[in-house]
Amino acid sequence: xxxxxxxxxxxxxxxxxxxxxxxxxxxxxxxxxxxxxxxxxxxxxxxxxxxxxxxxxxxxxxxxxxxxxxxxxxxxxxxxxxxxxxxxxxxxxxxxxxxxxxxxxxxxxxxxxxxxxxxxxxxxxxxxxxxxxxxxxxxxxxxxxxxxxxxxxxxxxxxxxxxxxxxxxxxxxxxxxxxxxxxxxxxxxxxxxxxxxxxxxxxxxxxxxxxxxxxxxxxxxxxxxxxxxxxxxxxxxxxxxxxxxxxxxxxxxxxxxxxxxxxxxxxx
Length: 268
Prior knowledge:
The chain has one domain (2-267). It is 74% helix and 1% strand. It has helices at 2-13, 15-29, 39-56, 69-101, 110-136, 147-172, 176-190, 204-210, 214-228, 236-260, 264-267, and strands at 63-64, 67-68. Strands 1-2 form a two-stranded antiparallel sheet. A hairpin with a 2-residue loop joins strand 1 and strand 2 (67-68). Helix 3 packs across helix 5 (110-136), helix 4 (69-101) runs antiparallel to helix 5 and helix 6 packs parallel to helix 10 (236-260). It is globular, with a radius of gyration of 19 Å. This is ABC-2 type transporter.
């Protein structure tokens, strides 16, 4: 627990540094392109536009769980793109930032949350595009939309927990990154992004197991906020399980990060 408190203290004390480095990393990412960091806006526009043409006006515009398939899918796939970007970058974030941060007085813990800041702008743009699509379907804001902030908070805490563990294990175990990358591809289908767990064809036992996934919980919160008008506390058992799991992962991850980071330089 002491390690977790230390980790968050280091993050809070260095928020301005995290924002500056993340902004620099985003600009560097697109430095060889004529449009530069504008691609952070163009890519989401292309993604949402393509989904709208295909599923809103084209091949399939049916319903899933009482909602138009396009809205049902976008409500989850928008945060999923953020989760995917942060998760994949989180695997190597400490390893990639180690040479720079080891020469400064900044704690290595800021590298853990760097991907969250770097991917946030794209996530916000895609969320804005999704809301525009909602308006096109005649949807109007409700009080449940404020639950979006809770869903974002839950998503961020989950990703911080996984980044703490994954970034450490990537350095300690050489084969960890390719293994997790392969597993994460399967999560796209097993976290409810495009598969409806409420389908009658889904076996109850498999559904019950898949719904324990923290990724599924986060995506469900986004859908409940925009589409189903349900509060997170209406399913108290699932919410409690999620936060207990995330707390345990945070404690374990912070312990691993704090106790191994002095050895990272020797291991890379």
